[in-house]
Amino acid sequence: MISRHKLIAVTMITLGLLLAVIGYLSGGKWSIIKDDTGIHVPTKQSLVNNSYTLEAFTSIDVFTDYGDVEIVSGDSYALEVNAIEDADVSYSVKNGTLTVETESKKKNRLSFGFSVNQTPSIKIYVPEKVALNKVVVDSNFGDTTLRGLHYQQLNVISNYGDIRFKHIDGINTEITQSFGDMTLEQFTSNGFVAESEHGDIDIDGTLNGQTTITSSFGDTTLNLQNKKSDLGYELNTDFGDITVDRQEQSSKVSQLVKGDHQLSVSLSHGDLALSLH
Fold first, then answer.
1. Angstrom distance (rounded) from CA 89 to CA 111
2. Is the domain of 222 the same as that of 120?
3. Confidence (pLDDT) at 46
4. Beta bridge partners of 35
5. Are residues 124 and 235 part of one domain?
6. Is the pTM of this model over 0.90?
7. Which positions, given as ranges, span the membrane (predicted)?
8. Domain span including residue 27
């Protein structure tokens, strides 16, 4: 007998495919929108591109229902937006905080679609030497990419999409991901919490302080620069294999080390590989 959750998932996938076909047959190239006025195909066949020069900020809030989000280091404070409609994305800088929000977060709107050329996106540039206080990214559909940033606090909530970090130096990092892979390269954090439902996790960097990683479905690979003698860890997988420095372990393994640097990884279904220096 099909479970309620599986039935809901199949229904949503079928609905998405049906809407995509309707959009194509209606003349839409890549997108169909449901909002307060009903279901319709955008009249424009290409995205609207806008670029903005921003005043200085030290915190970032991004709330989006669709499209990719990038926050990267650059030469100045700037924002680039690729959207379905010109008014789809709003932004403001108040009290040192840049807020970027899609209209679908304010109104009851949902997008389905596909594109052969462009994807809706929000790209934020931060000067390279700026240390951010707090960064929040709340994304429903789309990939999240961070590159070359320094921050005190980061919170990422991603429902559908991959998460990619590169050359990131943060104090506290919290990630909640429903569907998608998580890839963190040259990543340093002094307190890290990650919760993943479906997707692989790959981290290459240094995890200091308290680290907690939980995953329901997917493999986790940790290639850490931490010294083995400085890191205490507890590793567990219900269904899968565990290796530490390429040596096979039991389904539960731990190392007791007194100190501030502690790693806890718990998987329901997936392999776990840990490498230390």
1. 14
2. no
3. 75
4. 38
5. no
6. no
7. 7-25
8. 1-129
Q: Would you tell me how many other CB atoms lie within 10 Å of the CB of residue 44?
A: 13
- Last residue of one domain, picked from the residues 129, 146, 174: 129
pLDDT, one tens digit per residue, over 212-231 is 999 999 999 999 999 999 99
Domain-ending residue, one of 84, 109, 129: 129
33-39 long-range contacts, CB within 8 A, separation 24+:
33/84, 33/109, 33/110, 33/111, 33/112, 34/109, 34/110, 34/111, 34/112, 35/104, 35/107, 35/108, 35/109, 35/110, 36/107, 36/108, 36/109
Looking at the domain assignment, is residue 277 inside a domain?
Answer: yes
Q: Is residue 2 part of a domain?
A: yes
User: What percentage of the chain has pLDDT greater than the value 70?
Assistant: 78
Q: Mean per-residue pLDDT for 170-175?
A: 98
Residues 6+ apart with CB under 8 A from 121: 67, 68, 69, 70, 80, 81, 82, 142
User: So what's the pLDDT on residue 33?
Assistant: 55
